[in-house]
Amino acid sequence: MQVAEKPKAATTAARRTVVVNEFTNGILDPEAPMLGPVANGGTIIANTAPGCWGPMITPRLRGAHEVTRPVYVEGAEPGDAVVIRIRDITVTSMATASGHDRWVEGHYLGDPYVAARCPQCGQLYPETVVEGIGPEAVRCAQCGTPVTPFQFVHGYTVVFDETRQVGVTVSREVAEQLARQAEQVMALPDRSVQHPIVLYAPHDLVGVAVRLRPFLGQLGTTPAVRMPDSHNAGDFGSALIGAPHEYALSAEELEKRTDGHMDIDAVRAGAILLAPVKVPGAGVYMGDMHALQGDGEIAGHTMDVAGTVTLQVEVLKGRTLEGPVLFPLPEDLPPLARPLTEEEKARARALARRWGLSDLEESAPISVIGTGPDLNTATEVGLQRAARLLNMSVAEVRNRATITGAIEIGRHPGVVQVTFLAPLSKLEAAGLLPFVQEQYGIG
Length: 443
Hints:
Radius of gyration: 22 Å
Helix content: 10-25%
Strand content: 25-35%
Number of helices: 10
Shape: globular
Distance between the termini: 43 Å
Structural class: alpha+beta
Largest sheet: 12 strands, mixed
Order of helices and strands: EEEHEEEEEEEHHEEEHHEEEEHEHHEEHH
Number of strands: 20
């Protein structure tokens, strides 16, 4: 594939702040014009649309998500990294719906997330209309047939309090009342084209209280090959290899992904994310905000919401990354990866002296993202990425992740975090020490 030309945004003056209120049709395309450019060190502010279920029941969207149009970052070139500081994430939806799904045979070509098809007239990516509420409300505009390729096996509708701190799942009667004003209660952005999933009024869970902890399921940079946004990761992306639809990729082309679809709950306000740059301008995009999620997103979906996001972006020249690197908030680190307290350090130093050691290794946390078609492969990818990034053997990374960290599941079936305490000397050599100092006050 040819290297993408610089988007038109690169020829205009960079701005300190870029406000984003436009969305893709579910496809990340390195040759498509970007917004911006935003200045190196500048701010991106966006009103994001819900991911997953809403786009999943909207066949015209071709990636099962509706992410923001990418933003060109001044000075970013392939081989660099972009530092993304998440300054704020705020949920604007007052209600949403979600649940565990099943695929509807005959309603898609090869992949229900990518190529929805009307089972009656055979139209791919059909335009649709809404008739009433419930699981058959979305219909083909051409022939009137229910067309969405997903239905709930077990679902729920949830409302949030005014402060967006807690939520409660509601009864059938309330779910149907909300369904009749779905766009308003979900606070869909003006330019969003998805059908709001609250339309379906699922109600299998009633009276369950939850705690909100919002984060971005999609945050990253544009891949160097055109692909559906939800498939910009090694697990979902593997379904593109040899697929029967127009977005099929080879295994080699899939390596041009940037793993922006992580569904890692630590990608929240206060975290620092480093993303690889694989196209000129990087093309920072975001979306798929989740109100909350347990590790693994084991139901396949969680509470997708609309919301506002503020990011600060900075170019890290010459720091080539194979995939994302995360510096989570201290409280989001697994227990063994949290830096020792002063009392623990004093005890460790005394123990070391007793056994003839003059000093202890200085270390700090790092979380390297790995993705693949299954969790075992994703873990191997993460271990290898961490080893190459920090110039260690994979065996050493395995030991460190075992005794000073953890392997955490971002998304089942194939996104993991390899998190551990790494020597400051290795972090410095990799050009990562400033982020450790900023996030953890170490070094």
